[in-house]
Fold this protein.
Amino acid sequence: MKTRPSILVIYGGGGTEHEVSMVSARYIIETIQKGLRHEVYEVLIDHQGVWNLQQGPKSTPCYLRPGKQLCVQNEIGHTSFIDVDLVVPCIHGPPGETGDIQSHLSIYGIPYLGASPEASKICFNKVSTKLWLDALRIPNTPFVFLDELNEENLKRACDFFIQTGTTPEVFVKASSQGSSVGCYPASNLSELKTAITQAFQFSPYVLVEKRLYGRELEISVFEYEGNLHTSYPGEIICPSKFYSYEEKYSPKSTTNTVLRAPGLSAKTVEEMQAYAKKAFRGLKIQHLSRIDFFLTNKQEIYVNEINTFPGLTPISMFPKMMEASGITFVSFMKDVIQQCLKQS
Ligand SMILES: Nc1ncnc2c1ncn2[C@@H]1O[C@H](COP(=O)(O)OP(=O)(O)O)[C@@H](O)[C@H]1O
Ligand SMILES: [Mg+2]
């Protein structure tokens, strides 16, 4: 007879953040074991998309089925079943932050931690995020978006570039990517065209954004004990002013992070926190998110992007900013898991 709820942590996924997701999953599993003592099962989605139950050194193919069960196939063709009360889809980027796994879980009626398929999809696509932010009247970086690579769109992009100011510079971004992949600064028309062509190789839509000069700030937004909380803004201090793939992951990175961005006025902090809550509620995000901002040299606030399943390693900004605001990661996980189990 089952005495305690079982939680399935799914990680990997084969995307650019596959390895980071494994570190996040380790931290989540340790936190659950420390704070809740629930039964924890682990599934690694490998680079080929195969689901494997991890039990010590043993890795066994598995799949979910309706009725909240994980089916595990052993070497001699027998299938065993594990009851699943809750899934933690611990995947940054596809197929987790895109909402695909959450759709799969919804179809099978399996409760999960984090944003719904719809909220995940809207936030993962940089174009749809901006359209929603505009609709919610939340300031975000001025942009044009291109639905295909053609002469008319290149002209629109060039016109936008020329309008951006006396020293025009823009950021070109593939719509559905993360980790700064498919994201390029462009400071002349020739660079702009090359960047657009490259970005279209990653996504069917491309954004051209005005380059903002100032600071990169982030806020943890999370639900805890029935209330929505925001952390104090943290800061990414990147000397090259482009937090690129190398700056994010290379050991040679010169970027620093600060949990409490120094020198912000109370008004700026309040406004940022209010926008963060408005975005979280307006986009119907659940449980957790990290919302990234730019604060320009003129003190204007712009939302850059919304991460519905941010990095959760022991050194990631989301849990550290949460802890700096007085709520431990273990208390958060305990509360959020209890809420999910109650609703299931
Ligand atoms: N409009 C912009 N102005 C200035 N810097 C930008 C702008 N857009 C992106 N950047 C830089 O590029 C980085 C990656 O862009 P971002 O939109 O956050 O993509 P990703 O989802 O890959 O993190 C940012 O962290 C920032 O350093
Ligand atoms: Mg980013």
User: Anything to note?
Assistant: The chain is about 35% helix and 30% strand. The chain has three domains: 6-113, 123-138+212-337, 143-210. The CA atoms of residues 165 and 230 lie 34 Å apart.
